[in-house]
Amino acid sequence: MSRIVPQGVDASTFNKALDELAAVVGKQWVFLDELPLSAYRDAYSPLADGEMLPSAAVAPDGVEQIQKILAVVNAYKIPVWTIGTGRNFAYGGPAPRKSGYVMLDLRRMNRVIEVNEKYGYALVEPGVSYMQLYRHLRQIGSKLWIDPAAPAWGGVIGNALEHGAGYTPYGDHFVMQCGMEVVLADGEIVRTGQGALAGSKHWQVTKHVAGPHFDGMFTQSNFGVVTKMGIWLMPEPPSYKPFMITYQKEEDLEAIFEVTRALKVNQIIPNAAVAVDLLWEASAKTTRRHYYDGKGPLPPSIRAKIAADHDLGMWNYYGALYGPPPVIENNWKVVEDALMSIPGAKVHFDRKNDPAWDYRVRLMRGEPNMTEFSIMNWIGGGGHINFSPISAPSGSEALAQYKLIKQRCNDHGFDYIGEFLVGWRDMHHILMIMYDRADETMRKSAYDLFGLLVDEAAEAGFGEYRTHLAFMDQIARTYKHNDGALWDLHHRLKDVLDPNGILSPGKQGIWPKAMRTSA
Amino acid sequence: MSRIVPQGVDASTFNKALDELAAVVGKQWVFLDELPLSAYRDAYSPLADGEMLPSAAVAPDGVEQIQKILAVVNAYKIPVWTIGTGRNFAYGGPAPRKSGYVMLDLRRMNRVIEVNEKYGYALVEPGVSYMQLYRHLRQIGSKLWIDPAAPAWGGVIGNALEHGAGYTPYGDHFVMQCGMEVVLADGEIVRTGQGALAGSKHWQVTKHVAGPHFDGMFTQSNFGVVTKMGIWLMPEPPSYKPFMITYQKEEDLEAIFEVTRALKVNQIIPNAAVAVDLLWEASAKTTRRHYYDGKGPLPPSIRAKIAADHDLGMWNYYGALYGPPPVIENNWKVVEDALMSIPGAKVHFDRKNDPAWDYRVRLMRGEPNMTEFSIMNWIGGGGHINFSPISAPSGSEALAQYKLIKQRCNDHGFDYIGEFLVGWRDMHHILMIMYDRADETMRKSAYDLFGLLVDEAAEAGFGEYRTHLAFMDQIARTYKHNDGALWDLHHRLKDVLDPNGILSPGKQGIWPKAMRTSA
Ligand SMILES: Cc1cc2nc3c(=O)[nH]c(=O)nc-3n(C[C@H](O)[C@H](O)[C@H](O)COP(=O)(O)OP(=O)(O)OC[C@H]3O[C@@H](n4cnc5c(N)ncnc54)[C@H](O)[C@@H]3O)c2cc1C
Ligand SMILES: Cc1cc2nc3c(=O)[nH]c(=O)nc-3n(C[C@H](O)[C@H](O)[C@H](O)COP(=O)(O)OP(=O)(O)OC[C@H]3O[C@@H](n4cnc5c(N)ncnc54)[C@H](O)[C@@H]3O)c2cc1C
Question: Is the pTM of this model over 0.90?
Answer without folding.
Answer: no
